[in-house]
Amino acid sequence: MAYELIISEKPQASKRIADALADAKPKKELHNKVPHYILTHNGKEIVIACAVGHLYGLAQVKDKKKKKGWTYPVFDVEWKPISEIQKKGSFSKKYLDNIKKLAKNAGSFTVATDFDVEGEVIGLNCIRFICKQKDANRMKFSTLTKEDLIESYEHKLKHLEWGQARAGETRHILDWFWGINLSRALTLAVNKARGGFKLLTAGRVQGPALKLIVDKEKEIRAFVAEPYWELQLLGEKNKQQIEAMHTNGRFTDEKAVKKIFDKIKGCKSAIVESAVKKRVKEAPPFPFDLTTLQTQSARYFKMGPKATLNIAQNLYTNGYISYPRTSSQKLPAKLGYKKILNKLGKNPKYEKLASGILDLPQLKPNEGPKTDDAHPSIFPTGIIPKRLNDAEAKIYDLIVKRFLAIFAPPAVREQMKVIFDVKDEKFSAEGSRTVEENWYKYYAPYLKRKEIELPKLKEKDVV
Question: Reduced to 3 states, what is the DSSP secondary structure of residue 257?
Fold first, then answer.
């Protein structure tokens, strides 16, 4: 009897899918050291195979009539196995061969790669080039948890997500057209002018990024430093130090600032002209999209965007967080906030924090405006991680703390602005302090708030 062949994007994902769907323990088999899994789900026989990222890439169609060597422009391209066009991609051949072998006896096909543009292209190429099929079923999931994977399988789409597939293939082709043709033109032109050979590259992202760097460097080199002066008032009230700055800010006229300084330099006191206090609420942060996660990671851990993404991808593959390549700041209620919080509460590190959120009258996240039709924002699944390295532990903790913070009430800050008068010269001091921490305590230590507390002051006080 023919089985259903499910194709995942990576080996680790195939194991998690097998463990989730199997009625009993799945059977692991190896073909040329590449794993696949045999199992039954509700009595139906299923085989789960894996790719290892992209198994196909674009290459120029060879034309025997044309002379050898670089030419441009080139627009005649085709998909070829990565192992045939990249030396470093030779290892992928055994994954391709394994899927080809398993596809021969399959009666139906399901793609279970990541549900995004790249995942769709990976799945599409496996189905049409290896399995020789025109279409396939499609699983859509945002976490690799058992519940989510079973739900995804039971409600799988009857077709590939063709919009994503076409968009992804188009992007690959346009990137190839742009990058290869410009790189060849640039390399040939420069080498012809200077002699020898030096490979130069250009690309859709590389070109604009280089332009930004060059423009910034030109701006730095063109900068001419201009001297300026500031006037600072140092005072004391009730044994508490006060620092205030002249309300004019920076002075560019040395004579003008010296004139004011000479006018007030002998003064031993200042009069409070006004002292205004107000309380403001600061809303919790939005849920993490990938860009914000990368920004926060760089800020607090000095990690680059690529390193952060790789770590988040590993956390996702292990089932600890949701899919990270998302632009969404939404957190749908169907995810089950309470269920996730209860799971997090079983981790001693987050027990008290999770309990505090669960005690709130309602669980309503502070969602942002950005959406993503494919995936929600990044969130922890609640599964307790095992053996995280230092970098993984940092990113995981950041994601958990962000998830907790978005449910908490707004923080309350008290702001105070005081204007001092010294012989008709005005100086301003500003202070701020936290009155109610609320979401601050859930997101700590990943926030930077200055606590500048001024002494109690009122109009006409002498400092």
Answer: helix
